[in-house]
Amino acid sequence: MTQPTSHGHLHKKILTSKDLEIFKGSETYFQISSFLEELNESVKDKGNRTDCYFSKTTTEINRILQHIEDLVGKHPPEKVGLSRFGNTGFHGFYDELNSISFSLQSPFSVSESAKGELSEYLAYSFGNRTRIDYGSGHELNFLCYLLCLRQLDQICSADNTALVLGIFTKYLSLMRLLQQTYWLEPAGSHGVWGLDDYHFLPFVFGSSQLRGHKYLRPKSIHDPLVIEAYAKEYIYIDCISFINSIKSASLRWHSPMLDDISAAKSWEKVNSGMIKMYRAEVLGKLPVMQHFRFGELLKANENMGIEQEAEHVHGWGDCCGIKVPSAVAAKKAEEPRLRRLPFD
Description:
The chain is mostly helical. It has a domain at 11-190 and 286-330. It has 14 helices and 4 strands. It has helices at 17-24, 27-42, 56-74, 89-100, 112-123, 136-151, 160-182, 201-209, 224-230, 235-246, 251-254, 256-261, 267-283, 286-289; strands at residues 11-12, 133-134, 185-186, 293-294. A two-stranded antiparallel ribbon has the order 1-4. α3 runs parallel beside α7 (160-182), α5 (112-123) runs antiparallel to α6 and α8 (201-209) runs antiparallel to α13. The longest helix has 23 residues, at 160-182. It is globular. One of its GO terms (molecular function) is peptidyl-prolyl cis-trans isomerase activity.
């Protein structure tokens, strides 16, 4: 089984550049963009340890993520020697996640059809089974999973801070576990914006946390003492710490955009730039959005997806067999800890 069970019948509708332009003017685009801005504002000037309200639903989402994390122990990676590419042990993890994704939605008081759509967005949040890869398009699915819960009145604006500091950080931690366990390949992001091989949203939320900070400036990411002191407090700093832990050499070489951004005068400029870049490089790029699926909760415009032939666009390593090795996969399968690697 390579796709989530289609209880909600999600479908791809962005087949051409014309479809993408229609999507950018659609209600769903507005909903996604507005939800992102809400979450972004909810963590302004708030560190990871900030006390935030956890509702019944956000608590259930956290339990769902923990349940998914527990699946990793049931499906260890295959022993494949020195391979730096996706580990087929991921198939077992993904198949079990796919088989239980619908039942994981049982705590929510919604229709069976809605649970089906939720289950698909959740399953698509953890990468592609066939390519054993992960990228910003999969991350977008998790954002939309949360948005659908909002659409269904299971969560509200009062939950926003917890969704970022409690739920999204848990999801980020889980994805790092999957990346390190199954050596997931970067899906289309490598070399595009130079932020991170896999993620984009942590830099959006993380830069919002730092807006107005009295001492830390964008250039502070080059100070090892700052990274050590604040990695657990701020998502952005944590991301820099994680990148430094698996890649050697300067950010200038392996994460050029992060290096350039560090010259910005304020975190306000960084944050506003990140949101603009997310709209342009994720929501506005056909190589990413051609894989996105629509249903009844997040609807496609009626004029989308009516062309007979899809205008398939190739991204770097995106869906077409151009394999991009994972930096964390350069270690031997039996080594218990990551070792730093020269950037290549």
